[in-house]
Amino acid sequence: MPKLEPGQWAFVTGASSGIGECFAYELAKKGVNLILLGRDPQALERVTMGVEQESKVRFETLHCDLTRELDRAVSILQEFDVDLLVNNAGIGVYGEFLAADFSRYREMIGLNIVALTELSFHAGKRMIEKGQGGIINIGSLAGFFPLSNFAVYAATKAYVYSLSLALWAEWRKHNVHVLYVAPGSTETKFFERSRNGARRPKGSPGVMKPEDVVREAILAYERNRIICIPGWRNRLLPFFGRRFFPDWMVAWFAKRYH
Ligand SMILES: NC(=O)c1ccc[n+]([C@@H]2O[C@H](COP(=O)([O-])OP(=O)(O)OC[C@H]3O[C@@H](n4cnc5c(N)ncnc54)[C@H](OP(=O)(O)O)[C@@H]3O)[C@@H](O)[C@H]2O)c1
Question: What is the CATH number of domain 9-257?
Answer without folding.
Answer: 3.40.50.720
